[in-house]
Amino acid sequence: MTTPLLGVCYYPEHWPEERWAWDAQKMREAGLSHVRIGEFAWSRLEAEPGHYTFDWLDRAIETLAAQGLKIVLGTPTATPPKWLVDAMPSMLGVDAFGRPRTFGSRRHYCFSHQGYRRECARIVEVLARRYGSHPAVVAWQTDNEYGCHDTVESYSEAARHGFREWLQQKYQSPEALNRAWGNVFWSMEYRSFEEVDLPFLAVTETNPSHRLDFQRYSSDQVVSFNRLQTDIIRRHAPGRDVVHNFMGWFTAFDHFAVSDDLDVATWDSYPIGFLDRDANSPERRARYMRVGDPDAQAFHHDLYRGCGHGRMWVMEQQPGPVNWAPHNPAPAPGAVRLWTWEAFAAGAELVSYFRWRQAPFAQEQMHEALLLPDSTLNEAWYAARDIAAEIADAGITLPQVRADVALVFDYEAAWAGQIQPQAQSYTYLGLMMDSYRALRANGLSVDIVPARAGAADGYSLVVAPGLSAPTDALIASLKPDEQIIVLGPRTGAKTADFAIPATLPPGAAIQSLIDIKVRRIDSLPEHASVPLADGGALSVWREFIVPGAGTQVLARTADGEGWHFTDADGRVHYLGGWADGATLAATLGDLARAAGLDTLTMHRDLRLRDLGEMRFVFNHGPETVDAAAVLEGYETLIGGALLAPCGVVVAQRVI
Amino acid sequence: MTTPLLGVCYYPEHWPEERWAWDAQKMREAGLSHVRIGEFAWSRLEAEPGHYTFDWLDRAIETLAAQGLKIVLGTPTATPPKWLVDAMPSMLGVDAFGRPRTFGSRRHYCFSHQGYRRECARIVEVLARRYGSHPAVVAWQTDNEYGCHDTVESYSEAARHGFREWLQQKYQSPEALNRAWGNVFWSMEYRSFEEVDLPFLAVTETNPSHRLDFQRYSSDQVVSFNRLQTDIIRRHAPGRDVVHNFMGWFTAFDHFAVSDDLDVATWDSYPIGFLDRDANSPERRARYMRVGDPDAQAFHHDLYRGCGHGRMWVMEQQPGPVNWAPHNPAPAPGAVRLWTWEAFAAGAELVSYFRWRQAPFAQEQMHEALLLPDSTLNEAWYAARDIAAEIADAGITLPQVRADVALVFDYEAAWAGQIQPQAQSYTYLGLMMDSYRALRANGLSVDIVPARAGAADGYSLVVAPGLSAPTDALIASLKPDEQIIVLGPRTGAKTADFAIPATLPPGAAIQSLIDIKVRRIDSLPEHASVPLADGGALSVWREFIVPGAGTQVLARTADGEGWHFTDADGRVHYLGGWADGATLAATLGDLARAAGLDTLTMHRDLRLRDLGEMRFVFNHGPETVDAAAVLEGYETLIGGALLAPCGVVVAQRVI
Amino acid sequence: MTTPLLGVCYYPEHWPEERWAWDAQKMREAGLSHVRIGEFAWSRLEAEPGHYTFDWLDRAIETLAAQGLKIVLGTPTATPPKWLVDAMPSMLGVDAFGRPRTFGSRRHYCFSHQGYRRECARIVEVLARRYGSHPAVVAWQTDNEYGCHDTVESYSEAARHGFREWLQQKYQSPEALNRAWGNVFWSMEYRSFEEVDLPFLAVTETNPSHRLDFQRYSSDQVVSFNRLQTDIIRRHAPGRDVVHNFMGWFTAFDHFAVSDDLDVATWDSYPIGFLDRDANSPERRARYMRVGDPDAQAFHHDLYRGCGHGRMWVMEQQPGPVNWAPHNPAPAPGAVRLWTWEAFAAGAELVSYFRWRQAPFAQEQMHEALLLPDSTLNEAWYAARDIAAEIADAGITLPQVRADVALVFDYEAAWAGQIQPQAQSYTYLGLMMDSYRALRANGLSVDIVPARAGAADGYSLVVAPGLSAPTDALIASLKPDEQIIVLGPRTGAKTADFAIPATLPPGAAIQSLIDIKVRRIDSLPEHASVPLADGGALSVWREFIVPGAGTQVLARTADGEGWHFTDADGRVHYLGGWADGATLAATLGDLARAAGLDTLTMHRDLRLRDLGEMRFVFNHGPETVDAAAVLEGYETLIGGALLAPCGVVVAQRVI
């Protein structure tokens, strides 16, 4: 049981030193316990090569610590200063058109560049030595938002060299690589690893295996770049949490793998900015314009809690309008509180607002903060203060518990979907999100787990759509006698080498659970769908499946093909298409009940999250909703059954 | 009279040798007579520079020949191997932004590169020497799909050099070039051919004459690149057909000119992939989602039969969903049979499916085939077998005959339309397709002929819209006393140098047939059209025309301007705008009847093709249609008057 | 009082010399008084480096002068010839992707290139010496359409060098620059000016201050490039008008600053081409397809009259369909006359048609002219002749007078809006245009003035929306006791360094006039708007404002926030959002009447312009409209109260 905590991101270097003490005091007054600092300050820590100026940071830390605030210290490697770029121009990332990216914003480095890695190790080492054992510095953040602005992939000389080495390590011989990729196709065979280039600027699409390996390589660079820093920090900062702040709607590297080197997975939650970015329906965009997608925050909370082996923070929480989306509307009154409680309900130990005071200058000047640029306390400052008060007043503490439903998430499956969508509007993330929505529409709480053997152990219901190439070990670790397992569409569509399985999809391992063969894909234009015999429709993606003996067809399309299959015992299910929301919710609801789970029919705007004996209910819609039906057997600690827009209920099961 | 033949594309190098014999047997069982092989196999034919390994190809040919299969052998020049690219990097094509294209897919060569041409000549010579007189090798295919992935134009040093030479040859002096292009405009004058650059990356549009000449140059490179191969093949493979496989909806080089060096024009027909690509109406896209545009295949059959001087094959026929379109829906049941018979009805000697077995690896793994990757016989295998059987059962043989209607097609006119659309949605291909549709809506069969003097000889009705710059010789060869001639809009709009004719469009030659002057162009936004006095409307393009004495105005716009003109005898017609489908069909129907032709009013989904005494009827729609009215006087050999979706009728005139 | 004049643009070098005399005679017959020549003729004036061939130009000028025509002579610097580019390739502009732009069209030079400037000075000096005192050469045009085809910004070495110098001059020390830009943010600090690069190809957006300074630098280069020429011309051509022809809808440099070195601001008016380009509603695009936006021409007339300190010409007037828009429909009958009179009503001294004869060759061959390519007199020739006649018949002379309403226009505000739109569909020009429309909907005539102290002196109503960073001096020069002042939205949003003002927007200077603070921006998606309490709505942009004591809230949104504020005396107004057209017209109408002005409610298609005692009324719509109500107290000199489509009334107040 832990008490939910609040924090803020702060840039002392942006403000006159005489204002720091006042700032710290106002943070404490708002009930904040944590402050993140330092993550973009390289040019202030080392204004000239090798000349460190840490005195200001010493004083900033002391000033904050004097108010009892705990420091999350960021390494400044996301913003190498100009002198470093000029001394080592080959460190710049190179875009997919072969152009080196320039200085003038951030993240202008190439993950593959060994020289830049040495510079990072140097500055991190100096920082970690200096502050590693400082009592106020309770956690370290590596870098900032790995991959932001499409920076995971770099088409540089350093990447070319690194990729060849990586391939050599993986395949040992060019013949093995040629075989794995199928390079006999179009005479793409290599005689040595030195002949392999990066997959860009080709006449038409390059080999999907080539691209998948390059994505794996690029992801591995992020992992090792991060580990370089965590190793140094752990050496000098024993007992401190080492974290990184991930982003939303971003899959270009394997966040599970990076998280294996972290203590906590943290992420940056901007519900309204994301709504404008993602592919929501016009109706949904209008309805949730000022609160964000009702499932998107929770999805990411659950995903990153899974990455963090149960430990998750929101490192940056949107506090008002931001600056970076095409449109940046103001949040609805109460939205900041709604988002904060949603995070706690999903197990966040800490919610930290971004940022303390709105900067009047530079790129983010239109990004709101807890304070206005003139230091007036802004809406979100009061929101934070009130949340801190209600946590204290209600004496809220939160248990760390597991859900009953596991949704399997796999970054390689996301890459596979991008490399070979086959249907223009197919995205793995969209398919995952629809499955998540369908589970939540049944009032279910969900854990998101990696595609690793054993990760789904103990869950009553395991859902794994779109999982391109599950390992045999993962499939072998599923337990149909104890779990209802739901696969497809597109689960097992490929081998690890990005080929069609020898026994056709979903491949031999899955076929040992449910005897089916996917013989054909029907990829659908946006204007078309395939009606189902019992109402509803498939869109985007539909599979033609040949069931084996003993396989049952539970549902069919109107043209008579099966689309929902199960094994003889009804324990392993395969869905051969992307069903509409209502159909998917009904189907998964049935299967959840078959797995022994209780389901609830949720109002379109309400969302529910159970945490052991605690139940949280949220109203994302513009109207007041009566949630009494989903609070039966619960007593409310915060809020009441009649939820106003942005309303929050925290309740406790009546024993 | 020839018997229609079936074939398949096969890649023995993709499969274990022990499977070849079984493959060959199954091909024979399906009733296939031809197999195309070898066209991407360079890295297997010459894995190391100068070391040829043809033994596997020898064995593959023997294995296929042992089943009586006839071989179409492809030259492998569309996929130069990596060692060749590394030895000669300047051979890479360069894109319109000046970036050399990279290895990793196919067609990465520049047509202008002399060094690469020498390498091509070498490998083709070796192949032709070895297999030229092999009895089973009955035909040769040069390269593969010239121009695919926008590879006709290259902005390389080789192209720059070649273009200057070509201009020097054409114009002899810079002064002549300056005059022809009008380079006095904007001070674009050159003092020597060495000053001329390729028309790319300029501040705003370059001189249209400059671009047209560059397109002519680029097209000429394809012609000479192809001829280099055909010359070698003919030397070593006497009596064999030399062919190339063209694409659909592709006009970047002059296919008539390339075909002049071939025996047969073949093309690759992907009806569903094309539907998703081209600019069809949403309603049309939905209705024909699983069969393709009812006119597009036939149009290309007729076009390529024209290119091939009467001889045409479908070298690659879509057998199921493909992988390269934005969406790739499954064909309707019966669609493969429909497409195959459409090709035969249009005079195809051979329809060859692409490909034998779905490759489980590399770029085209989602492209279906006659066999699934696990060798299961797939839908199209059965379709092929059934078609072969019905040909044999009904004893079908096909005559080679001419249609009564000629539609004049000109690649230079397509380039002119792209270089200077003037109205955003103007495309020459679109205008041609609409004219073709309007003729077919009258039940007419059409020959597509080049814009060459005499090519329209003997046709009762000659239709030539959008023909930018017809030669005087072509116009002089028309015979208004024997033919009804339909020109415009945009026919004769330019001189050969891409200037407005001195006597205004349509230029003096046409004006000697019909006395009109086009004084103004009204280019229309998508939201607007010009209503006609008698119903219907013009869209995209409308001309203001001054008729001379004796010229008759047959139809007017609602605002009183003439749009359909004819000479005093009513034999030469000019249409001053792009009319809607119904108006165009009515107009061309009237003129066909005036030319003495019988017309039929076709149901929207039915299409008809006459081949001498034989009549073919096809149903492209989703409903059963009664075709009795268009089968009066015919007896059916295959199918009956009530056509189910994808239904085919082959009938014989009752004498 | 001046008599309105007509002219034409002519290219004698495009035509056989023997045609010149006939041309000149036909110009005189049409009633034209001015001819612009020479502006693209460099390759004919200096075909070889240093060898001048001016004899043809001598003869052309004599031929024209012999008919009494007055010459506007253009300098040819917009089209440097190929030999110059080859001798000095670094003179080429470089695009935002780092690619040098190529020869083959026009404007391929970089404004920052000192070598090219020397060449320009040389050719201008030679021309000015030769023709400066020629009696027929009454005016000089510098270059042509500065900035056309996005050529103001160049990312060249020359620009990089120049920008660093410019910054050094402006900031004196890197520390000052770092402070001004807020470079502590993201470690963007520089140690020397040599470290500063151009703001392009960065990973994500660069510092807005960086971009604003680069835009200022780029604009300054246009100013100094132009001044280089005007200085030379003035030295050799005393008493002649020096002009430049600006474009419509173009803001990439400061036209006020360039105009300070000119005698007359001229511009090129293409009403239909612009309609297709700009962001008009579909309904508006359809209604005005053949006449252009009813306010856009007038807006630019008023803007450029402001640039020219009261003197304005239309240097190029669209005479028929053009070639460069996505669609190029024919103008409605009467449209050319309508446009011509609109220009005169707005104070144009001269309207010059582009061009004399349609060129049959090169890029603009589809651009109509007064004559067809075959020298047939075209529609616009007759229109010009008739206009000249009606001017003479009615004895029209025009006074130079000021309007009562000033709309403040600022190029830096346009740049600020582009650099940081914050809401995707925000554009400064759109906001200005909506304000202008709203004023015109009240029958008001408007002067457009620069954001300079004193520029709004003497106006009863001053409207300044979106004025990002007004100087304190400008604000101090406003006179609330004499003027009604209307500010916002977004007025005063930034400091000169592109930061949020220390006292929050609209900044201290404006806050001394009206005590408000903008605390939050609500940037709205296209699908959303904020309803107002009294009907109507705000879209795109809405501000949350904290009013000070004494500030009145005149109107509120439906959710209770103020949006229209005024000071205690009701003299200074601030609008906190982008209101719909009807609301804005009603609001500005009220304020105009409060300022003592008479307003009229205009029919949607009618527009009115007063010039002292003269009143002009125009009908832009497709139907006849009775304008009697707005002509009360006037007697008509040309036209009558019942205005047919494209109808024009010139009336005189009855004393």
In short:
Three copies of one chain form a homotrimer. Chain A has 19 helices and 25 strands. By secondary structure, chain A is an alpha/beta fold.
What can you see in these coordinates?
The structure is a homotrimer of 655-residue chains. Chain A has 655 residues and is an alpha/beta fold. In chain A, 31% of the residues lie in helices and 19% in strands. Chain A has 19 helices and 25 strands. In chain A, the strands form 5 sheets. An 8-stranded parallel barrel of chain A has the order 1-2-3-4-5-6-7-8, surrounded by 4 helices. A 7-stranded mixed beta sheet of chain A has the order 10-9-11-12-18-17-16. In chain A, helix 13 (335-345) links the parallel strand 7 (312-317) and strand 8. In chain A, helix 5 (114-131) packs parallel to helix 8 and helix 8 (208-236) runs antiparallel to helix 15 (411-419).
The share of residues in extended strands of chain A comes to: 15-25%
Number of helices of chain A: 19
Q: Which blocks of ≥5 consecutive residues of chain A have pLDDT under 50?
A: none
Largest sheet of chain A: 8 strands, parallel, barrel
**Oligomer class:** homotrimer
Global morphology of chain A: globular
Quantity of strands of chain A, as a count: 25
- Tell me the Rg of chain A in angstroms: 25 Å
| Order of neighbouring strands in the sheet with most strands of chain A | 1-2-3-4-5-6-7-8
